[in-house]
Amino acid sequence: MASNRERVTQGLELLTGGMSAFVEKQLRSVHGDRWIDAARGSFRDDRARTGENGESFQWDAHALLTVMWDQWNTCFRTVLGHTERSLVSELREFRNRWAHQGSFDFDDTYRVLDSVRRLLLAAESPRLPDIQSEKQDLIESHVAEQVNSQLLQASFKKNKLWVIAIYLICCVTLVGYLIAYANDSTMFVVTIISLLFVYLCYQQFKLDPPLLYGPRECGRCHRIIYRKSCPYCTD
Q1: CA geometry: angle at 83 spanning 82 and 84, to 5°?
Q2: pTM above 0.90, yes or no
């Protein structure tokens, strides 16, 4: 399965591929032939962002979101609403976290993909089905992992109860045998054995389920795997 960071990366790439034409169109409609200069004015660094011919702009998620934010009142306010402006601001924060190697849990990843989907929907982007597929795959993987984990925990608890039951049977049998053939040291031995089995049962009660993952199909290569991460995709 793809990691959360990989899914965020894919979401940002789909945002760039799905929104760049829309952003260029809005910039052209306001700034005309000077739209590249207007876009370049949103940046304070010296990084070259234009193509070799100087007539195209090199978009990435950072450039796209920065230009949309800076040019909002001029170019985008009439075609997008306050909700989309909030999405741009939110995605800028997530993109900065991604650029600084920040971590993403399921909620963060879902939020990124859903925010990208909403922006692509507002722009009527042809890449909308791609982000919907990515979002659906995230949900299915998360649900499958949760269900799988719950089943394994239930199985582990059941097995733990069986182990405790076996300990108790052994303890009762052994103590009963010693009492039946009692001698001067019997009570001491019975006490030691009882404490030992109490300790073993207590350790079983305390034991946490191992982080195991049952057999399932990898969402990327479709092979059957038994671990959380797919060894075929990561090798």
Answers
A1: 90
A2: no
